[in-house]
Amino acid sequence: MQLEAHAPSVPPSDTIPKLGSTEDPALTPLTALTALDDAIENLGVPVPCRSYDPEVFFAESPADVEYAKSLCRTCPLVEACLAGAKERREPWGVWGGELFVQGVVVARKRPRGRPRKNPVTA
To answer: Which residues are annotated as a binding site for [4Fe-4S] cluster?
Structure first.
């Protein structure tokens, strides 16, 4: 049995990004999030996302999501937070008073399970 030589499986070193390289946008620092953190520090007043349990802003129940959105409406940085979340395409959670699902703003969270065929009368 004779073995054949193959090309190396490692790409040439000139195609591997250098450590600290920012050519890939996915590897760039989150400047919008850093700027938001700086703004929160400079504001000097408590903001809801730092004052309440973070789980509220990533809740599963529609009622908890609406509660988180209402908390955001009281924040002085709501516009900057929303703009940054859109820029970063946040995968999920409440940011700037809006619910994000897979990087897109969604009007409201649907409850788990299949919807009823007929509405329930109370």
So the answer is: 49, 72, 75, 81
